[in-house]
Write a structure and sequence with these properties.
271 residues; alpha/beta; TIM Barrel; 33% helix
């Protein structure tokens, strides 16, 4: 049986000047602009036919604070599709509290890189299906990596970053996803710092390198400019799901339009 591909809208949430949760959209993880209210956007995407929904607290790790669980709870009340929540999750208790607030899955980046045992602990305690390992990767054209891809005739490796792409780690992203897979991650959420917000298409070499290295389902993220980019990341990179933000937030395309485009090209999607 062929598994259907998933289309997943994502909101990047931060606190505004009054301390209220708000959705922001940027380019390359910078130049963030106010986009809307997270609860209202969750309600809209639930009604629009999204397969899942992702809520990322984009500055929780950088600022050393906990995820805004009150907002997560209000968002969970509005969506009846799987909800993934990420940002500031460092311990098994953080995972438990996020799930208790209404999340179906948690997305972990910095906390897992700092202590890989967190993946093993969370998977054992709550099930692998709850554990999504997020990878914020950027291209590096030097000799410090472990596994390389060819991009425009050059050798490139992908470095894991933390704190919303603000800091490099020196860790090879492909090596890291292999470890995360072995430790029990249920899904991998692959973000490209280079492609983020550009609408120039997903980072196909990055996504393909991850998909070829693991058996864990892979969600491609960053750079979607339209249905053709979603088609490409499914057919050329082998992603299991495609995440997008701007094209849906600003109503350039509907989720239904993307699914129809894929349907016409024999890509199995949910309706």
């Amino acid at each position: 049986m062929t598994l259907t591909k998933r289309i997943i809208p994502c909101i990047d949430v931060d606190l505004d000047e009054e301390g209220n949760a708000a959705v922001y959209t940027g380019v390359n993880f910078e130049d963030l602009a106010y986009t809307g209210d997270p609860v209202e956007m969750a309600r809209r995407y639930n009604a629009a036919g999204a397969d899942e929904f992702v809520f990322l607290d984009i500055t929780a790790s950088a600022e050393g604070r906990e995820t805004m669980l009150d907002t997560v709870s209000r968002v969970a009340d509005e969506v009846f599709i799987p909800l993934t929540v990420g940002g500031g999750i460092r311990t098994r208790d953080d995972v438990k509290e996020t799930l208790r607030a209404g999340a179906d899955k948690v997305s972990i980046n910095t906390g897992a890189l700092s202590r890989p045992e967190l993946i093993t602990d969370a998977a054992a305690a709550f099930g692998s299906q709850c554990v999504v390992i997020s990878v914020d990767a950027r291209r590096r054209f030097d000799e410090a990596g472990e596994q390389y891809a060819r991009i425009d005739g050059e050798s490139c490796w992908f470095e894991c970053t933390v704190k919303g792409g603000r800091e490099g780690t020196g860790i090879d992203a492909v090596e890291w996803v292999e470890e995360a897979d072995e430790r029990g991650a249920g899904e991998l959420f692959v973000n490209s710092i280079d492609a983020d917000g550009t609408k120039d298409g997903y980072d196909i070499p990055l996504t393909a390198a991850v998909c070829e290295s693991v058996s864990t389902p892979v969600i491609a993220s960053s750079g979607c400019g339209g249905p053709e980019d979603v088609y490409e990341v499914f057919t050329d990179a082998g992603a299991d799901a495609a995440l997008a933000a701007s094209i849906f937030h600003f109503e350039e395309y509907t989720i239904d339009a993307v699914k129809s485009y894929l349907d016409e090209r024999d890509i199995p999607v949910r309706h």
